[in-house]
Specification:
Blueprint: H1 2-22, E1 28-30, E2 34-48, E3 54-62, E4 67-73, E5 86-91, E6 97-99, E7 106-114, E8 117-125, E9 140-145, E10 153-158
Parallel strand pairs: 1-8, 2-9
Antiparallel strand pairs: 2-3, 2-6, 4-5, 4-7, 7-8, 9-10
Amino acid sequence: MKGKLQILLSCLVLATGVFGSEKEIAWQSVDQLCGQVQSVKDTKRVIRQKDGRVETLLYETPIPNAKVVLYRTGSVEDKCCNDAQRKAETTSGRVGNFIFRNMLKGRYWLVVTKEKQRYEMPLLLTEDYNHRCDDPNSAMVRIFWMDAVPHPKIEIHVR
């Protein structure tokens, strides 16, 4: 009986460890707080050609006219969000574009709200603000995939 109890307790400890790791916050590294907020769900468009053919095209889906709020946090374990940490707020543009200037490197939560949807992304800002976001000729754009699974993510795209 003692051996079975030890095995049962060992399984319980292992299972608890697995479940505990799922709750870890997946901090996303980014060099600047600017880019486009988007959904991973593609937008479908059906096009009917003059010859009768039908084409279905898939497009990226920006999150336009959304409330974008930035919260500062000090700890790796801090969950999102309280108003005492609120640093800035803006509204995303027509293609989901946003920019937060003058932010210092550190940990932040990016919260995007559109209608009844709310998305939260934990961010590790790796550099102080350096005007890189203000360059209209930049070939780089940061895409913030707010509803990606298992957690939100950032990708750098070259135009």
